[in-house]
Amino acid sequence: MHILVTNDDGIHAPGLLALAQAVRPLGKVSVLAPDRNWSASGHVKTLDRPLRVKEMPLEDGTSAFATDGAPSDCVALAICNFLGEKVDLVVSGINPYANLGHDVTYSGTVTAAMEAAIWGLPAIAFSLDSPKNHLTLADFQAAEQVARQITRAVIQNGLPEGNLLNVNIPFLPMNQIKGYRLTRMGLRVYHDKLDSRVDPRGRPYYWISGDSPTGIPERGSDIGAVADGFVSITPLKLDLTAYSLFPELNQWEWDQEIGHPLLESA
Amino acid sequence: MHILVTNDDGIHAPGLLALAQAVRPLGKVSVLAPDRNWSASGHVKTLDRPLRVKEMPLEDGTSAFATDGAPSDCVALAICNFLGEKVDLVVSGINPYANLGHDVTYSGTVTAAMEAAIWGLPAIAFSLDSPKNHLTLADFQAAEQVARQITRAVIQNGLPEGNLLNVNIPFLPMNQIKGYRLTRMGLRVYHDKLDSRVDPRGRPYYWISGDSPTGIPERGSDIGAVADGFVSITPLKLDLTAYSLFPELNQWEWDQEIGHPLLESA
């Protein structure tokens, strides 16, 4: 069992070290992560410039590689056999903030796991729902245990191809975590606002500002589970097709501007 | 009907002009697009630096705005009322390459439409399955007609909240396009390879290279429809939850390392 550990916060993030230590008892571990923070970067693949990779041991002295590419690039490098050995499982994180609801499409932590799933590998994204700004390794103590248990379960039970798990862990001591919940993606509520300013030369510029996203803590959702003190495990799939819309779209009225406006659901 | 037109190829792309011209008969049109190419950028939201926006008319002399932000930032700016008037519909493209199968998570064209859907707006991403490298406005002639017809249909029929359409148009003259097909996301086959090189100073660097992605042209998939000469219309949703995995995950064996390993699907 060869496990790739990556993240979107960069090689020096304490969450990466926590995750590496979490999965080390479960197999051979390789760490390959970005050399800087890529938060809110989305699903990036770097094709227009070459990538550098350098060895850069983790704080506990174990071997690791840092690249100037994005989180998904780390996965792509490993899948293209950069490590000289096939990868069997990809784990990403532990992100110091939650990745709940629609966060998943922005999240470098989750899109790294998606990249692995696209290539047919089982993958898990781990995030800690921390309210704090600067975390230390000690803050990840419970999350590390959770990550180990869930990764072990994935190794034991397997994950169907094209799927990944998005795990969010409440920021609580181990004995206060209430357990696990299987959840659906919830509904984030974003509070973006435009903050228009004028620079010293009189030219306008704009910040996308506003409060951090909140969420509707519905029962059954990832947001609800974490709010209730549970570890949220959301199985995700790569197929975004809204199959339920097919009947409705088939009944739409269409102009006849085009020669063949026939809707044919095949 | 106030329509926002954006893209990921930048304000000067002929596909943006084609799309603006396509939808101009359908309502009031505002164009706000990145000032450079953001292809394969994924779903980015720029929070760590301010954005600049400048007026930059399109080639046909109509008003448009260019920003140094990402495609999703264009949508966020418009939703945060940068244009001074509420947006009712977002159209993105016309991308000069197809966005089929798993391309959608990487694609700036599609993630711009996703950003709109997250905010509850109907949105459509348009891509042309062109084999060519450099396209002119004339190359988008058929795609422009298709984009107008589909946008009109969305305005007439409405699109349920949280959904978007991903449209791929074959690179054919209008009279050779066979019609429309409602499709599901197909399976891309990526051919990434690692190209390891050594720089003039003896240090290694790496290109993610290999042939362009191909696809399995299955019947019913976006890839199959475009290969058959049809316009592919794939309804997408923002909820990536793999509901079908719930029963299986509920039956997994779990270690008892944690106090409460109870799986509770709520």
TrEMBL record, chains A, B:
Record protein name field: 5'-nucleotidase SurE
Transmembrane segments: none
List of residues binding a divalent metal cation: D8, D9, S39, N95
Cofactor: a divalent metal cation; Mg(2+)
Keyword NAD part of the UniProt annotation: no
Domain of life: Bacteria
Task of the protein: Nucleotidase that shows phosphatase activity on nucleoside 5'-monophosphates.
Major enzyme class: hydrolase
Lineage: Bacteria, Bacillati, Chloroflexota, Anaerolineae, Anaerolineales
Gene Ontology CC terms: cytoplasm
Cellular localisation: Cytoplasm
Gene: surE
Main localisation: cytoplasm
EC number(s) given by UniProt: 3.1.3.5
InterPro entries with a match to the protein in the record: SurE, SurE-like_Pase/nucleotidase, SurE-like_sf
